[in-house]
Amino acid sequence: MSSTAQSGPNTKHATPAPQTAPLSYEPDLTADVLVVGGGPAATWAAVKAAENGASVVLADKGYCGSSGATAAAGTGVWYVPPHPEDRAAAKASREALGGHLANHHWMDRVLDQTWHNVHELAEVSRYPFPVDAEGRQLRRGLQGPEYMRRMRLRVQRAGVRVLDHSPVLELLVDEDGSVAGAAGYRRQEDRPFRVRSGAVVLATGGCAFLSRALGCNVNTGDGYLMAAEAGAAMSGMEFSNAYAIAPKFTSVTKTAYYRYATFYHADGSVLEGAGSAKGRSVIARTLLSEGTVLCRLDQADEAARRAMRLGQANFFLPFDRLGIDPFTQMFPVTLLAEGTVRGTGGIRITGDDCRTEVPGLYAAGDAATRELICGGFTGGGSHNAAWAMSSGTWAGRGASSFARTLGEYTHHRALTPLGRAGLRPSGTTRGQAGDHRLVVEAVQREVLPYDKNYLREGARLTTALESLNDIWRELRHGLAGGGETTVRARQAAAMAATGRWMYTAALARTETRGMHKRADFPALDDPGQRRRLITGGLDELWTVPESAAPVHTTVAEAAAA
Amino acid sequence: MIEVVSRSRCVGCDLCIRVCPTDVFERDTDGIPVIARQEDCQTCFSCEIYCPVDALYVAPLTGPAPDGSPHREEEHLAATGALGAYRRTVGWGGGRTPGSRYDRNHLFTAGMTGQPGTRPNPLSGPGLPQAESPGPDLASPH
């Protein structure tokens, strides 16, 4: 273990390393299950693993309770009563939008599990749901701060050891390639830590490329990179171009509210065809060609206005604090990239317990693909919330069961660290590729612009992918850090990797399906491409249709076939 | 971005240092948190709702507020009621009703999910707060 990010020859221009070899981890823990992340999926995974008898450590990059896309927002929940007609309608509503890539077996079990978990939120966590005139709780919405505060408490009461401000940097594997723990960095203590574990759940969120969309800057694709280094694949990475409407210069996204909006050119004339749902591409094109799009929520009547204030209170913070009445005054809007946070791509799931291709490694929440329940259409809001609590539950139980099968052997395995890009560069060249800030900016230039990622076209995708491949080659050779800088370097590397999988899949899908719209292939739903795409690799990328290896096929699907 | 830590209000509980998801704050030599890495602030407003003494203010801008901006003037923000306004709305703090009790979010997302009730009719259900709407508290600093 002489070559690590905190030592070795590559820290010349980086922050001085606080540790010298031999490395001492503080803390150096053992647990049955390590959960990486601190949002809804991570907290449900930790709780359910603990309830299954496992000792659990939860390590979050930020603070478990405020971290991630949910904690900062209000969200609907795909919470549907267990009546056959309601469930059938709920499933059918997204089928075509999602490009027929969702799976009924998974939709059914997510609806069942969500029904159960929301009940637990009410009964165990005593979440203060609103009530109707008859005193019945309305359980189809959650306010992020309240939800996540209560989930943190539940995690702690379950005996889980929580490490805040402790970004995990890399996975550790045993001789067989099974994931056996992870190492990271405690940024407020300025020292590395390690957890040896029987299994690891990655619940690290998606990747929004540091776009400053509300709550998303902790979501930089870290889990994808770590999973890929262990040998896991991604699925649905072409469904990664979610953009949310926000007042210009602000972070606050809440696209559902813009259904009450009228959009305007800078001169105040109505922008025809623009809208929050189907008309968002009109907004993108106008922002590209004219630079400005104005908006006014003038379709909202008094009743809607009051209800909006109560749905997501921080939606109005920018307006109130800037002195704008959004219902009567026009304000400029922008589209903020939400990448895979509200896209549906992520780590490929290969079993009902949210396992991945790698033994001992599980994925949940936005870190995992959500195609299983919403295909290629945005998983934002209610579906993602339902998926997070369901997949978190299954991953927590699955990981704890896996750890139990290892028995005594668990903590006596020789560990090999897997982190490469941004952590253990292959060369010593510095310069541009050695500065994580420049790497982030270079990646953002390829993944944020509307004419590259949102309004997709083959030649532009190819050029952008070539640039990202160049960025990757250079950073793989020369990007490293020391201490806190290592965290930043890994984020930059994860963003570059995510962008490459995203465009590799986007080029492979030569049609328009779900949120993936190709200007050069505008025809919708090519029957020959009605299957998910698996993408993977680090230095060399690959992509194949899932039909070649249909491990998602379940008993239910097989019976139907 | 976070712009104001009120030194007169702060009680040194360090909660903001703990809860900021992007680790923006650091403890100063006198124990009061300082904004050490403003460029990392993601403008999520989380620190405001956790602060028990309404000592923090996050300007609603994803870049730093310019010199002389009212978003950086503590006295002005206090006078207009902006300090602590979001915490009041969320309903955190002694004696307050959780804002989630008034949530009507499901009405806005219903049509997007195939759940019952596809058309938002936000006042069709009772349970909305009658007298104390949180709106007026969110005064503009202008």
TrEMBL record, chain A:
> Molecular function (GO) terms listed?
L-aspartate oxidase activity
Can you name this protein?
Answer: L-aspartate oxidase
Q: Which domain of life is it from?
A: Bacteria
What is the reaction catalyzed?
L-aspartate + O2 = iminosuccinate + H2O2
Domain FAD-dependent oxidoreductase 2 FAD-binding: from-to ranges: 32-239
The Fumarate reductase/succinate dehydrogenase flavoprotein-like C-terminal domain extends over 455-526
The record ties this protein, via Pfam families, to:
FAD_binding_2, Succ_DH_flav_C
Q: Name one GO biological process term.
A: NAD+ biosynthetic process
For this UniProt record, the keywords arranged alphabetically read as follows: FAD, Flavoprotein, Oxidoreductase
Automatic annotation (TrEMBL), chain B:
Q: Name the domain of life.
A: Bacteria
List, alphabetically, the PANTHER family matched.
Answer: ADENYLYLSULFATE REDUCTASE, BETA SUBUNIT (PTHR43687), FERREDOXIN III (PTHR43687:SF1)
Q: Record's InterPro entries?
A: 4Fe4S_Fe-S-bd (IPR017896), 4Fe4S_Fe_S_CS (IPR017900), Fe-S_Ferredoxin (IPR050572)
Return one GO MF term. metal ion binding
Sorted UniProt keywords: 4Fe-4S, Iron, Iron-sulfur, Metal-binding
What is the organism field in this record? Streptomyces brasiliensis
List residues of the 4Fe-4S ferredoxin-type domain: 1-30, 31-61
Name used for this protein in its record: Ferredoxin
Residue ranges for the region (Disordered) are 89-142
